[in-house]
Structures are given as structure tokens and as C-alpha cells.
Amino acid sequence: xxxxxxxxxxxxxxxxxxxxxxxxxxxxxxxxxxxxxxxxxxxxxxxxxxxxxxxxxxxxxxxxxxxxxxxxxxxxxxxxxxxxxxxxxxxxxxxxxxxxxxxxxxxxxxxxxxxxxxxxxxxxxxxxxxxxxxxxxxxxxxxxxxxxxxxxxxxxxxxxxxxxxxxxxxxxxxxxxxxxxxxxxxxxxxxxxxxxxxxxxxxxxxxxxxxxxxxxxxxxxxxxxxxxxxxxxxxxxxxxxxxxxxxxxxxxxxxxxxxxxxxxxxxxxxxxxxxxxxxxxxxxxxxxxxxxxxxxxxxxxxxxxxx
Amino acid sequence: xxxxxxxxxxxxxxxxxxxxxxxxxxxxxxxxxxxxxxxxxxxxxxxxxxxxxxxxxxxxxxxxxxxxxxxxxxxxxxxxxxxxxxxxxxxxxxxxxxxxxxxxxxxxxxxxxxxxxxxxxxxxxxxxxxxxxxxxxxxxxxxxxxxxxxxxxxxxxxxxxxxxxxxxxxxxxxxxxxxxxxxxxxxxxxxxxxxxxxxxxxxxxxxxxxxxxxxxxxxxxxxxxxxxxxxxxxxxxxxxxxxxxxxxxxxxxxxxxxxxxxxxxxxxxxxxxxxxxxxxxxxxxxxxxxxxxxxxxxxxxxxxxxxxxxxxxxxxxxx
Lengths: 307, 319
Prior knowledge:
The complex is a heterodimer. Chain A is mainly α. Chain A has helices at residues 4-20, 28-35, 37-44, 49-60, 70-102, 109-123, 159-176, 186-196, 204-212, 216-224, 234-245, 251-260, 266-285, 291-298. Chain B contains 12 helices and 2 strands. In chain B, a hairpin with a 2-residue loop joins strand 1 (22-24) and strand 2. By secondary structure, chain B is mostly helical.
């Protein structure tokens, strides 16, 4: 669950829980998520939650929606996205570690994470027939297809070299957005840009195979044995109804689903953890929780990270 | 750093980029501070897709020619699937490096003299990409110089990106391709790319980075949709002025055809590359930049092995 597709799904579903239970959160949260939805989404797929989320909340805490400018809303949504990232990581990473420790001849943790994304793509995004709530993050059947089959243009164009150029172009833009400090020492500068630019190292073909043609032993080991996702889980039913039919739960149903989530799938538990993390963020934002307690709550104990 | 300053001044003097701001690729760059205050730096060059495609193409030709020795030859290859990531990928981001900057030579000197330096192959790739970035910039700057309005320079760049991409897409004469579908396709590449990187790396100033990235993602979608529009339905007058008249790109140029063949997994003969490079003077800007990049990567490779002098290197990459 520490991969891109699952992270953004957990963000989107956590955002739905907040929207359904908005009276229990600072108004600034649903407001920022609504107005700067994409900022939360890409932060949920980014590193750095332990460094950036709490300082952002601290900067704006107590402020009401009307006091928050566009940039503040983007940052708050970003902080909440980062916290949802942390929630999924804490839920799922122990599973990957167990797999790593087993030293199994066939199963391995990287592939397990890719299977998680494949299942999330199938269950949450319905194989790409349902996109995200952000128009800047466009999922489609092409997302996990060889040659991007399933997007209408793919029939008429030469996909592979085009995708290659555009992908490298995105990487150069991401490097540009790092705003790296100029250095007289070019060797140092080169090290900086190499370390701070993205590495393309996840083999998308494995995700595609995991989605299009999964191997049943791997589904058993990676998904079923750990109960990674269960569409019958009450908390999952709630967010899917909101996503697909715009149907909001009544407060008792939501409360009960949250309370019973610990007996449910890993994905359901990640949503509960996401909800809890954001709820704690809300208490801190409303001055009902100390910063130190908040860091403890998130399991951020390294002193230099408790900014 | 003197050369760098001189080149920055001459760049401004040529009116290559002026005014208060310009969208380069998907980024809105404030050109007021583009070269003024240090530290700046990653913000010149021509931006967009053309440098990326040129770097990829030139490296591919050198790879097929088989003339570089390792470890320099390791830097030529990009790859979207490899774990760990292909070091050559770092070369493809060199379009963000400052053009005609003397530090390119400094970097190559480090790589010549210290084979143990960290990230050796990645740095070599970065230097090769930087060489290509210079080559295309030095050929295209005269077109930019004709346009003082920053919006128009953006438009020139967009038309150049579109013309090159039309060739890679292989959509010439295809009336079935709809603009909205092409725009959707471009946008659908982004989640695949972000999946491939596992997680995004925020800049050290994470809070501001959220705002920069938010803005970029909006502009990026706008840029990709506009690119689709220009590919499917270019305005003929603009195509004429920006692309055809200056002979920016000719898909029929032999050297370009060869790159497209290699990109489509077809074979070409190294001897034919040599012939095409030698017989390249009347070709399009893009083809001549490809030839310069090819030659200069090879000279840099020789320089790393002490088979080419500093003088030869400097003449080649700053011409």
C-alpha cells in the first residue's frame, strides 16, 4: 500500500469520510480539500509527511475558511494528503516487512506493493473507468494497459516513444520545481540534482500484469491472506457509495463503520487510520491538542522531525 | 564563472526571452529574476519537449554507433522500467540546465580526472544531455530572437514541440485523431509516470513546493491540451512562420528518420549514421542540432578518455 495508486485512493476515500463527518473537523479542512483537492492528492503520493504536515497545520491553526488564501488552502490540503500517506504506510508497511523477512523464493515485497495497486485500481477506480476527483490526475483504462490501450487516441498513434519522451519531460519539470540552489561547485550541484530528481524505477509492466493477468498464487499470498481489500466492509461500502452514487451515510452508520473497522480489511483499517490522523490534526488545529502529543500520535519520535 | 555571465548577458541582449514572465513547458517562469539574482540557475534553456527528444535521439544514435567506451557508454541508455533506475535517465532532464554555461566543461573535467567521483555515470549522462541542450539552443535562439513578446516565444516553442511530436506520434495525415482524445492521452501519461517513480520527492521548502507543484499541474494540463490542439489543428500562418520558414523540423531529414527508426525498434547501420551526419548541412535546425549533439557527445567521450583536448571540447560545445 505504499504505492502511488493506493495512496491517492486512500486520500480520496479519507477525504470522503471527512466530508461525511464534517461537523467533527475544523471547517478549514473540508473547505481546503474541496478547493485545493489536487494539492492533497499529489501530496498523498509524496514523501516528506513527517517533516511538512504538522508545521503547515501549526502555521494556520485556528484560522477559519474565510481567512485562508489560495496558497494556504493548498498547503492545508497538502498536509492532510501527507497525513493520509502516513496512515496507509503505517497500516501496510509491516505486511511488506513480514514478506521481506520470509525470504520466499517466489513472493517478494515490491511485487506485493504492485499487486496492492492493481487491486486498488480494480476495486476503487473500477479498472480506470472511474477517474480521480482531480482533473490533473487522469486515470483511465490506459493507466494499467500495455501500450496504453483503452484510451481512444492510442489506436491512432505510436504510443511507446511518445510516452518515453513525455515521461522524461515530466521528470525534468519535477527537477525544475525543486528550485535547487545554484552552486559554483558543479560536482556538488550535479550530485544535488541527481539526488533531488525522481528515479524511474518501478516497472509498470508488473503492475499491468498484476491487473490484467494476475497470478493466483500471488493473489493468494499478497491480497487474500492479508485481507487487503473487502468490498463488503462497511467503511468501504460507505466511501464507494459516496464515490459512485454521491450517497452520504447517516451519522450512526458512519460511526458504527468506523468503530468496527479494526475487524475489517487492511484497506478499511487504513481508512480508519487516515480518519483518526486527520481527526487528531483537527484537534491540534482547534487548539485542543499539544504539538508534542500530535507527534506522538503520529509515531514521529525522531527529535529532528518534531519541528 | 565569467563566461557564464557573458553568455547570460548576450542571451538577454538577443531578446531570446524578455518581459515579465513566460511559461516554459508547463512552468511559469518569472523572467525578471531569470538571470538577475543568484542563485538562479535551473531556469534557462528552451524548455518543453524538444530538448528531451533531442537528448534521447542523440544518445540513441551514439549508442548504435558503438563508439564510446565504458563507463561513458553506460550513460547513453534511458529506461522506464529498470530497477535500480537507469543512470542515463538523468541525462534526459538536462534541458533544465543553463545553456552555454562554462560549468559544463568543469563537470567534464571532474569526470575526466576523478573516475571515483560519486554518481559517475549519472553525471556523465547529465553532461551529455547538457551538450545536447546547448546544441539545440544555439540553433533555435535565432528564431526566438525574432519575437520579443514572451507569449509569442511560448507559442514558437509550442509549435516546435508539436512539430517534433507529430513525427514521433506518427499522426501525419491521420484525420481520425481527435484533439480531445490526444489531449486526454497526454494527460493520462502523468499518473503512469508518477507510479513509475513510486513517490514524489518534495523540495526542501516543502510548503512552497506544494504551491509550485499545484500551479505546475494546472499549467501542465493546459499545456498538454494546447499541444494536442496545435498538433491536430495548427494555425497555418503560425506553422509557416514558426516552423516551415525557419526550417525548424523536416521529418524527411535522414538523421531524423534514423532516430525514429531506432525508437521504433528498427535497425540502422552505423556507417549510415556517419554518412548522414557528414551530409547534414542543408538540413533542418532539429537535424543539425542532432548532428551537433552526436558529434559533441563523442568528443566529450573522447575527452573523458584523454583522447580529445580541452580546446577541441570547448570549440565543439560552445559553437
